[in-house]
Design a protein that fits this description.
This protein is of the alpha+beta class and about 325 residues long. The chain has a single domain (about 1-320), classed as Jelly Rolls (Sandwich), CATH 2.60.120.330. It is built from 7 helices and 16 strands. Strands 3-4-12-9-14-7-6-5 form an 8-stranded mixed β-sheet. A 4-stranded antiparallel β-sheet has the order 8-13-10-11, with no helix packed on it. Strands 1-2 form a two-stranded antiparallel ribbon.
Length: about 325
Amino acid sequence: MVNSVGEIRYSKLNCIDLSSPDIQNSVSLLKQACLDCGFFYVINHGISQEFLDEVFAQSKKFFDLPIEDKMKVIKNEKHRGYTPILDEYLDPVNQINGDYKEGYYIGVEVPEGDPRAQKAFIGPNVWPAADTLPDWRETMERYHQEALTVARAVARLISLAFDLRSDFFDQPVMLGDPIGILRLLHYEGHVSDCIKGIYGAGAHTDFGFITLLTTDDVVALQICKDKDAEPNVWEYVAPLKGAFIVNIGDMLERWSNNIFRSTLHRVLRTKQDRYSIAFFVEPREDCLVECLPTCRSEENPPKYPPIECEAYLLQRYRDTQADPSSYKIV
């Protein structure tokens, strides 16, 4: 399962073809991947390479702006907009500072007057001025919609892996009306130093249901298949052009009663700049996350109490991210 190239150890991940007519094989590959390491590739997902290249080009245009322009669209209390370097603190035990990355959050667009906009993660997005970045908003909104379509296709395979009907997660309270958070990321070309506690992104598990990640060709992502092992054993995940790297999050761990476990991962920066785009998929804010009916029994009762998605996400964000009120707005 591991290839060694010099000092770099690569993890071999299952590759799931969403265009394959053999659904049972796809379900088997996904289930094996989630039991093994919680990470897998998804290919032939329907988003063209040409469009992916355009999304990355538009992302780079934003991060190339002067810092004073980026600070004009700083992250607000809804977690929309720009996040500067050191904003996030994913591994406070081992990090001396926050993550050495900058990002940009984009969620589901909900008008200010909509009753749902009163919720913590719901509302209008923050957008750069159209005269500064023409077509930027349109590109990101299209990508958000297309990534959500891919996420729903993956969720149907997860449903079948749990012997549920294929549309189980398509319910309105789940992925029919979800919290989908697109995050553009830029890691500047400075080298991480684990001994000194300097990371591009500190070791963490993702908070939600699943994450769809697409990256450039810079090798930087590491995973730890057994997060309870001491010491942790880290393996690199090789970028795969045109593919999504998918991983399961803490909510799916709770839903599955620890059958599928979220995976510890981190980013080590190199001398090269790195760009990636993460799409975090969560159910609707009022979804009650509780043990799935096929994941419990008398011998294996639920390990976690039910919790609403919004309450869970709020606590996790408070634990890891800077308070928007602390920003100095330009």
